Amino acid sequence: xxxxxxxxxxxxxxxxxxxxxxxxxxxxxxxxxxxxxxxxxxxxxxxxxxxxxxxxxxxxxxxxxxxxxxxxxxxxxxxxxxxxxxxxxxxxxxxxxxxxxxxxxxxxxxxxxxxxxxxxxxxxxxxxxxxxxxxxxxxxxxxxxxxxxxxxxxxxxxxxxxxxxxxxxxxxxxxxxxxxxxxxxxxxxxxxxxxxxxxxxxxxxxxxxxxxxxxxxxxxxxxxxxxxxxxxxxxxxxxxxxxxxxxxxxxxxxxxxxxxxxxxxxxxxxxxxxxxxxxxxxxxxxxxxxxxxxxxxxxxxxxxxxxxxxxxxxxxxxxxxxxxxxxxxxxxxxxxxxxxxxxxxxxxxxxxxxxx
Length: 356
Description:
alpha/beta
């Protein structure tokens, strides 16, 4: 593959040189974040929660087992604005692989920057926090020097959830009991996990008013961006909470539940993205290793009366879930459906089923 000199330019002025495929042209903007996972890049790249972001993998070699068919993907496409790696493997080896990572990214029209010192880049994000960045593919000024001064575009100015949410309702199963699954950028393994139970699932758009329908339980999915920007979803959820039916939320869904209850959220310095985050269930003291992908957290001090923290992150003590003391509402910030990552907390789906 022919490569050309390119670069990642952060909003703080730091420049990280690298190489990009010759076919890539132009500038690609996004919020630069990092993921610590050693495997699972296919599921990670297709996670809609990364919409609008440029992702750097801390693991030095990505792509060694290629890319399998879409049955293992978490959505129909890659939602990232760009990918940054130390080394991308062209020659892959796996029985289920159909093509290489580089071929897949080209087909998906997602830019990649290779040969980057990802350790140094991650340290910058760890120290300064996530920030805007842009991948410039071989662009030069009149003097032949690569461009360093650019105007960064903020993806958070867009409605990121609307871009990844399902466009119209979709039904799964034929069970007697019915749950509403609000799609804010739902991973497919969440639907697979919910389908393990004998109920009817109605998957609806982020701004769909389901409170006018008959249902037995409500599920809130993961998704990208600032939870406070999901004003339509929160307004509908406030009405649903008054109905006092079982509610479960995951990731963004956990933040939305807290916001609808009256709490506030805040942006984490560099977020939690990886498959090795230790969390503790507060009531039992049980610890689990979890898969995570979020940049915001619930402010515990703002939780209203009747609500409490049910899980904590053991690395930074941040809130990893909230629940109500008497009503059947609970949520978690991590991903019990995994994909990628450990399945220590898959039992939470059974808990939701039992509540319904």
